Protein 1
Amino acid sequence: MAETTAPVGAAPSAPAGVVIAESATARGRRARIALRGLQILLALFYAIASALPKLIGHASAAESFDKIGWGSTGMYVIGALELAGAVALLIPVLQSVAAMALGALMIGAFIVQIAVFDGQYAATPLILLVPLTLMAWARRGHNAELLRLLRRGA
């Protein structure tokens, strides 16, 4: 019978299922914690830095929406949508849908930045779109649960 040896510096082998399962579990746990932290940061950003100035009618937000031609009504609607998205990012069953909805808002914001503001801050919505897309994909399993809840309630 031939004897096999591990390469120099390799960890001793254990049953394949055990090592892989432990490794995947630890990695998965770290990924879930990182994703949850990212969700909290994005929720805080959308609630405080983005929605709040619109909802309190801050001069800079009002000026921007006047330039777009949407006035205070558009400002309050977008602010309310951003606040609702921020809250929904923290509710497990709504996380994927919230990330998709906020992503759609960011696509709209990008278009407005290009069309109205000559691309001055066009990178910001694109940068925010990256983690939102990651979140929507990572939490996509919640969509089936949400559909089940909606069908049961209807």
Protein 2
Amino acid sequence: MPEHDTYERLIELLDASSVDYRLIDHEPEGTTESVCALRGHPASEAAKCIVLRVRTDRKTTRHVLAVVPGDRRVDLDAVRALFAARYVGFSDAETAERLARAIPGTVLPFSFDPDLELVADPAVVARPLLYFNAARLDRSLALSGADYARVARPRVEHIASPSPVQAGRA
């Protein structure tokens, strides 16, 4: 498994941006539900980060880092409409790791690669506190959604839909 300097790069970026954040050490965990329990907050306060492959035509493929609340899922139809794409699907693990510069389960809601476009749902940037794994399975970070938006500069679009559990309660 390749080593990534993504954690150090994130901390340098946040410190240089004068952002208030909190680091949280915990048992190694990469699934949203499990790490939320370790950190002690509801999944709605987590940033779930998914690398997508977006095919706009036969020859053009883009990669998008979609960020949605932890209790929601990425609405692939919304992403397809947003990019006027023919196809949207999940990126393969190797490409996701290369572009996100993080192993699965530790992908940040930040993009440090010009080939990875960052799109966040409005519910993410509206959070008073937003939690996510800090490019490590054993450390997370909490900061305000407003500070996240200011530093990460995502394209903010409605890309989340209820999870199957939420849809069943509706």
Protein 3
Amino acid sequence: MTLRTYKGIAPKLAEGVYVDASSVLVGDIELAKDVSIWPLVAARGDVNFIKIGARSNIQDGSVLHLSRPSKGKPAGSPLIIGEDVTVGHKVMLHGCTLGNRILVGMGAIVMDDVMVEDDVIIGAGSLVPPGKTLQSGYLYVGSPAKAARPLNDHEKSFLTESALNYVQLKNEYLAEG
């Protein structure tokens, strides 16, 4: 794996974390227990910080970044990802906050200052524009993303199941050495 220090700050990895050797993590990044980072992920915690909660997974080719502090926004926009979050292949997350038990579909883009509440599915290819709040319990699709319908019980339970499937898979990868 490629972990790079930036301005004296190195990524912090908790117990049981898997980071694929082809991924690059730079700077102020904190990965909680059982997080998995899959091939070709680029995560830059250089002008702000990235924090990823337990059992979350970031799939192949995703890009994680943030916005620097500025006069108009003194804290900038860090990237905060909650627990049991599945981030699909080739997703772009930029300076947003994701709650717990979320699925971000393949190729989705979630922009600065977006707040995604718990128990949400963002459909593949969706664009969530800056500053939008996605309310808990819905499927969001489109460009710009809009609530399509409430999640059913099966979909809600799948959010945790998906995260746990990736914990199992990363454990198999770690066992391979």
Protein 4
Amino acid sequence: MTATPDLRTSRPASPDLLRSVFRQHAAGVAVITARGDEGPVGFTATSLASVSAEPPLISFGIGTGASSWPAVSRTDHVGIHVLGEHQRELAATFARSGADRFGGPTAWREGPEGVPVLDDVLAWLVCRVVARVPAGDHRVVLAEVELGEAAGAGRPLLYHQGRFNALRE
């Protein structure tokens, strides 16, 4: 059921307004990985977007206060992993501050350009970072796809209303 917007009760722009609006927006869930100075780093992202088909470019956002930011700010390559609905725990692990993201039970291997590549995902890419664009307390990272695979089985994991969810038909 939809409602006609009541313009009299609209709220001014704020971080809380933005969070409330985007709780209503279902998004695919990805894990972004990179090689860091002291080992692999990674984080859960719902901001992954296809930017261009020619050349093949993607984008994602990362907070400058995130533990993965120092590595992402310096690396030449990142890994992009599209998660399936069977990977809620993996998504939660990579979203949790202070978690041992690459310890058991996370299954991964070192891929091209030293990028950590996660096992059992729906799809993955290795991309070359071409720009980091300042955007408030975040950076929008633009990266050109170099190689990948989209042959994983299953349905995508979604993020909605602050929870990881399965796609319903």
